């Protein structure tokens, strides 16, 4: 019997209704598909039933990778590696659909890595990803919301995000202590042009370093209180970081890059 490893954040999805809902999010017949963290192959079976052109799975756990080979043989291509070590753009010659029950301990790291490394040409058509619910709430949060922050601003920069459903602990084995959420991502055609995404990370890090304080201090720290930028972007320095919308942070990043 295969046991989940806490060190890898493993919780295997066993709920057939949820598995069905995941594969029905998007049409994948004759499409190239990537599954991240297939675990015991429960979702893999449902993906194969939809007749994709090709299915590649990335599984870090050696024992699970061997078990997947035994279960599916040549039906899937197995990469036994850590997703954080892989450049997905080099794996395929076409845009793909990605499914992932992401390990909760590195889910934000995976998503952030993908967004930061995105150029103008996306390597995927869709992402169907599962997160810890509180992380998903931060990803989809809009401004003037307590969940709104750095992850919301980064995720919504180049992606359109839709929440599919919440998932209870009893849908997994072993049961996690928290709820999960399934999110659906598609590329945003018109996104704000920023030269280096790491500048957006820096701006949001400085502004959200103390989210309960007014933004006067971080603004002065980065822009030395420049009144021209204040007037150009039309910012009230008495506001708090969560009161500024997505576009304001993208504009602030653009001004920072112009310094």
Give keywords:
alpha/beta; Helicase, Ruva Protein, domain 3; 7-stranded mixed β-sheet; two-stranded antiparallel ribbon; 10 helices
The top-level CATH class of the largest domain is: Alpha Beta
Could you describe the largest sheet, including whether it forms a barrel? Answer: 7 strands, mixed
Number of helices: 10
Q: What's the helical proportion of residues?
A: 25-40%
Specify the structural class: alpha/beta
What is the quaternary state of this protein?
single chain
Average pLDDT over all residues = 93
CATH-scheme architecture of the largest domain: 3-Layer(aba) Sandwich
Number of strands: 9
Low-confidence stretches: none
What value does the Rg take, in angstroms?
20 Å
Fill in the CATH topology of the largest domain.
Rossmann fold
Q: Beta-strand percentage?
A: 15-25%
Helix-strand string: EHEHEHEEHEHHEEEHHHH
CATH superfamily of the largest domain: Vaccinia Virus protein VP39
Shape: elongated
N- to C-terminal separation?
A: 59 Å
Spatial strand order of the main sheet: 4-3-2-5-6-9-7
- Tally of individual domains: 2
